[in-house]
Amino acid sequence: MTAQLVAPKERKVAQKRIALTGNHAVALAVKMARVEVIAAYPITPQTPVVERLAEYVNNGELDAEYIPVESEHSAMSAVIGASAMGARTFTETSSQGLYHMYENLPIAVGLRLPVVMGMAVRTISAPINVWGDYSDVMAMRELGWIIYVTQSAQEAFDTVIQAYRVAEDSRVHLPAVVAYDGFWTSHVLQPLDVPEDEEEVVRYAPITRSWVKLDVDNPAQLGAVGTPEWYWEIRWQAVEALRTSLKVIQEADEEYGKVFGRSYGILTPYRLEDAELAIVAYGSIFGIVKKVVDRLRREGVRSGALKLRVLRPWPGDMIKKLLEHVDKVAVIDRAINHGGPLYGPMAVEIAATIQKPVYNVLATIGMRAIDSDMIYDAAVKIHRGLWAPNTPYTVGLRGYE
Question: Do 349 and 321 form a contact (C-beta atoms < 8 A)?
């Protein structure tokens, strides 16, 4: 059966305020989205997500198949198979777990399956480090997944629900990942507004089953050989779907705002209108970046900030428009682009987008703690011309500052 998208209605639904960690907020969003198949292997710091989902299924609060697999490779294989049968699916991972499922990540794209995955982001080994940075999710940028990066437990909750609506939209049919800070968001108790009536979530994001799936009544073949005569065309359809999904992402966010009263945009600008210095960041540290902007403003520096929420598809035109008037752009990267033209992945992409040098700040690598004073010091050096663009500036790295 192929269901159609429910026509959007403008309304605000009743909600209640609770307190949850980021991990449990994601699990609740998955439950409210009525996911039908969950496959997961526990790995720090995402383990509480799948544990809570197992509780929901065990207690009869969620009617879903829960598949405890032996590895992340199997987790992604299982949700791909279930999605190919038309089920709404979910899995969660981080760090080396993501790398273990790597073989299957592009398959979900090529088969155009709307798998949704959560990721409590974490750095990579070696040395062994179970703490947070963005090394894992940044490695997915070339695969064709929709990539969201969220700032808080509330945003992670809301974005998981939005991701189902976007991924299953007939104009998209692509997998999506929702990332949030390992530990700084995943394990911190935060206030959260959630719908009192869970039916509202399904009304907003109904299961469309509109993607190509295995059906004995309508036989189809998935995962066939793509010879050189056809592979490129088939893969390019996924490229075009990802490019055009930006419009769907924006529509879904705006509609979510009308229904639930919260929307986030593709990007979040802060005091950028007349800024001469802009700080670009992502994830939970955007709050302290705004604090730095306010401090600089009080000292007479026209500063602003920009939060990246959607990394794929890359919202290049929007970024260019927001930053085109800014003299100096600093990008805080929370992952290392080893041996690249700049040492941070987002710095490379921002520089290519605005077609001018950027100031590349590396911070929180391996979850090295920072505070607003450290970001402020970097911003002041940039403003005073004490630091050259296209040169890495490390915040909190002993012996190299």
Answer: no
Specify the pLDDT at position 54: 98
pTM here is 0.96
The rounded Cα 211 to chain-centroid distance in angstroms is 22
Q: Which residues of 288-297 are buried (b: 16+ CB within 10 A; e: fewer)?
A: bbbbbbebbe
CB 347 within 8 A of CB 360: yes
**Are the C-beta atoms of 122 and 138 separated by less than 8 Å?**
no
User: Which of 208-222, 249-263, 319-333 shows the lowest mean pLDDT across its residues?
Assistant: 208-222
Q: Which residues contact 2 (CB under 8 A, 6 or more apart)?
A: 208, 209, 210
- Amino acid at site 313: P
CA dihedral 101, 102, 103, 104 (to 10 degrees): 60
The string of pLDDT tens digits covering residues 350-386 is 999 999 999 999 999 999 999 999 999 999 999 999 9
CB 106, CB 143: distance < 8 Å: yes
Sheet strands (E) in 37-80:
37-40, 65-68
Cα separation, 66 vs 37, in Å, equals: 6
CA atoms within 13 A on the CB side of 79: 37
Cα 12 to its chain centre, rounded Å, is: 25
